[in-house]
């Protein structure tokens, strides 16, 4: 039997509630919140271009930042919103890139790669994904997840994601960082030991293969669950 292939979002859904995984990832009910998708896409594209240039040792001047953003911008259909949204998102990108330009130019930080493919094979499955940014800062390897903003519905999502990504570099004990772009705030995550993360992954793959999808049925979780409308076992309250 071929190994099960999952992305971090599937594992996250399963740990939140196995029934959520069944409904969202196996049956296709929408699981992730999609409102800020356009803003996230624009910023991801702009930052990917920026980090590729920095990995190549290029200087990125303010004028160049404007051109990068022009290329990356996902324009909304509503033209009335466009100007306001452009200014807001360009401001977020420009603040980020302007601050980091100094770090890179002074060689306090170095980009190693952006959108780095990631795989972790454990037991009967493979976890795959792409790491937003891998860099060296103050002589230490750093894995960075770039998020538009903190999502109150899934506050632990980035930390779990970084724990998974750290498996690709576990011998180097990387620093794990989430950068919330809208708030321009960095948060360091202290993940669990790689052995514990690997063991949990192997169990998760095994449980999914065995089709174990019990419902958590807890009001505190069901309230936050994006597929509750499709779940016959949801708890009320
Ligand atoms: S509504 Fe509750 S029981 Fe149903 S999938 Fe979501 S968390 Fe699980």
Describe the fold and architecture.
This protein has 237 residues and is an alpha/beta fold. It has one domain (4-209): Lambda Exonuclease, Chain A (Alpha-Beta Complex). The chain is 44% helix and 21% strand. Strands 1, 2, 3, 4, 5 and 6 form a six-stranded mixed beta sheet that branches. Strand 5 (175-180) and strand 6 form a beta hairpin. The protein starts with a strand and ends in a 15-residue tail after the last helix. Residues 17, 19-20, 23, 215-217, 221-222, 225, 227-228, 231, 233-234 line the site of iron/sulfur cluster.
Number of helical runs? 8
- As for the CATH topology, it is Lambda Exonuclease, Chain A
CATH architecture level-2 label:
Alpha-Beta Complex
**What are the secondary-structure elements, in order, as H or E?**
EHHHHHEEEHEEHH
Spans of at least 5 consecutive residues with low confidence: none
Biggest sheet record: 6 strands, mixed
Mean pLDDT: 91
Beta-strand content: 15-25%
User: Whole-Å distance between the termini?
Assistant: 42 Å
Helix content: 40-55%
- Name the shape in a single word: globular
Q: Radius of gyration, rounded? A: 19 Å
- Tally of discrete structural domains: 1
Structural class: alpha/beta
Number of strands: 6
Identify the CATH class.
Alpha Beta
């Amino acid at each position: 039997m071929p190994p099960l292939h999952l992305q971090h979002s599937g594992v996250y859904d399963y740990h939140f509630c196995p029934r959520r995984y069944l409904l969202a990832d196996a049956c296709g009910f929408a699981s992730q919140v999609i409102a800020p998708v356009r803003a996230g896409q624009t910023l991801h594209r702009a930052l990917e271009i920026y980090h590729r240039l920095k990995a190549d040792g290029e200087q990125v001047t303010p004028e160049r930042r404007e051109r990068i953003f022009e290329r990356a911008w996902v324009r909304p259909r509503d033209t009335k919103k466009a100007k306001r949204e452009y200014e807001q998102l360009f401001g977020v990108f420009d603040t980020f890139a302007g601050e980091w330009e100094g770090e890179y130019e002074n060689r306090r930080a170095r980009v190693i790669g952006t959108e780095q493919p990631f795989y972790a094979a454990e037991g009967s499955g493979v976890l795959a994904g792409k790491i937003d940014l891998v860099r060296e800062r103050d002589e230490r390897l750093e894995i960075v997840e770039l998020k538009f903003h903190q999502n109150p519905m899934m506050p632990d999502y980035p930390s779990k994601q970084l724990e998974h990504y750290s498996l690709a570099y576990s011998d180097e004990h990387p620093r794990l960082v989430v950068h919330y772009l809208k708030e321009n705030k960095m948060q360091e995550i202290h993940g669990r030991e790689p052995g514990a993360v690997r063991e949990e992954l192997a169990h998760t793959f095994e449980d999914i293969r065995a089709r174990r999808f019990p419902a958590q049925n807890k009001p505190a979780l069901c309230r936050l669950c994006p597929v509750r409308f499709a779940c016959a076992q949801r708890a009320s309250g």
